[in-house]
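User: We ran a pulldown and think these components assemble together. Before we commit to crystallization trials, I'd like a predicted model of the whole complex to look at. Sequences follow.
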Amino acid sequence: QVQLQESGPGLVKPSETLSLTCTVSGGSISSYYWSWIRQPAGKGLEWIGRIYTSGSTNYNPSLKSRVTMSVDTSKNQFSLKLSSVTAADTAVYYCAREDGIVGYYYGMDVWGQGTTVTVSS
Amino acid sequence: EIVLTQSPGTLSLSPGERATLSCRASQSVSSSYLAWYQQKPGQAPRLLIYGASSRATGIPDRFSGSGSGTDFTLTISRLEPEDFAVYYCQQYGSSPPSTFGQGTKLEIK
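Assistant: Here's a predicted model for the assembly, 230 residues in total across the polymer chains.
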């Protein structure tokens, strides 16, 4: 079955750019939306944004100015860049697959295990 | 901007009891665009319900979802020990493109 795996540095310095990659295995990356979600320790889930395999994106308005997502279908990977990070960006970052059609949403049905990113000097 | 408010914040029940979790939206949400997730400590969330009332693959039938407009409910008919976790509702839309509720913690009484 489809599995997702996040990868990237676990420690990022303040004001620098957080970069994460999610690798899709066991299936094709095509024809789905792919999302990033984060969760500070002890807190709830925050949706960061999503990318379709065509490259079209939707971002959380509160993070939009700092977020860039990209997809590499040849590698079955998609990526997140979050610029100008502060301690408030410290969280577990999850990637997830989203499914749906026009007029119907099937939810985030496959999730990565999550990767902890700490912003600290 | 659509805000999802879940209640109660914490629900204390015993195994075998019925759990009713609420998700209220600040504006009307299409029931086609409402999902529920379960998250256990140290784990990624798991999709339970999509389209407000359709169970995801492998989800036991003791989990059910209902509602429309601004009020949605997740019901667990008879709690099993493994059901004690945090539950989140989520909306998929245009403004913003996606939002999670703040979560309801279901704990053993």
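The beta strands of chain B are 4-7, 10-13, 19-29, 34-39, 46-50, 54-55, 63-76, 86-92, 98-100, 104-108. That may be worth checking against your pulldown data before setting up trials.

User: Thanks, that helps.
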